[in-house]
Amino acid sequence: MSISFNPNFEIVSTNNSSTANLAAGATFTGASDAVTEVDVLNVYLFATQNCTLIIDQSSNGTNWDISDTFTTTANVGFSTTIASVAGFFRVRVTNNGGIATTSLRLATQFSAGLSALPRSTGQATSANSVPVTIASDQSNINVAVISTPSPTPEASGFEFGRVTLSSLTEVILRKATYTEQTSNAQRSIKSSSANDSAAGTGIRTVQITYYTVTGTGPFTETITMNGVTGVNTVATNICYIDKLTALTVGSGNAAAGNVTLQSATAGGGVVVKQISTGDLQSFDAVHYVGTGTTLYISSISTGHNGTTVGSGAVYRIRRQTLNAADQPLIQVSDFVRLYGQSSTISRLYQAPIIVVGPAKLELWIKPETASSTTYYGSFDYFTR
Asked: Is residue 76 exposed (0-12), middle (13-18) or buried (19+ Cβ within 10 Å)?
């Protein structure tokens, strides 16, 4: 066993902490650590590829009878705390991405002296309710107070979009065109500028975050740009595109041209999604919820650059089920009204909006002025 103590009375498990990168499909398996008289296990993971995180527990350090499994998203930090219910534990991490990680940080600690947590959260029953004794001149009355555990997030993030409008038409909040595909395929990426290339001044590498036609994902793939020449993806199961993000850039620190994901190989087909000139990501408030995933929307934030009275807008989130025929776009949020004269507003949901995958979420906007105005908006979420 390899442990060290820190000043906060937590025990750091060096056996189950790592910064070594993982090849595609590779697994880090920590060594068994004894955790007697320990209340909880705290695990943190950041990786540049989608991963599976498994926390195993054992009564003897050999037979791993209890496992808690989590999926993590590329470039999004994840942490979890679970109850220590056996004498030994270990941590496993598998790289689910198509390439090796370029950064990985796994940190594991034990904590003692805390109230024990349930190993997993769910609907409370009388078995995990808290008995409370109420003072009375009668005989003692025992009341079972049922706790309602909050969902433990496996990943969190936000989708951000912007659009410049000069009409009263309701549209999706996105800067450039998105042509949603309906089948899996190999795609390609190119630019309208030769400076978006491996040694250019613009974007050098770009990451695609995508889902398959059945809503499986998210997956990521990183492409090294080659200017106006289309570079094919390795993956052949790319359907729904969540986002494009620049990972490395040249001295211009932005896209030198329009960086476009094309529907076909060798730069062919139609533009599916785009990073516009001067940007570093695709700016559209669209997000996919994967199959088997539950998403919780916690807030909507809005803003604009209008300087006159009446230049506001109304925002709403709409949902559409994936991989099913004739599915409508259903409004799932309330109407969030943005007022004129450069105002901003945030709508916080104490009871999050729940969306079960596979589904697509879109933030829609209806301007209240026909003058040219740039509108901004985002929604925050976490998933289980």
From this structure: middle
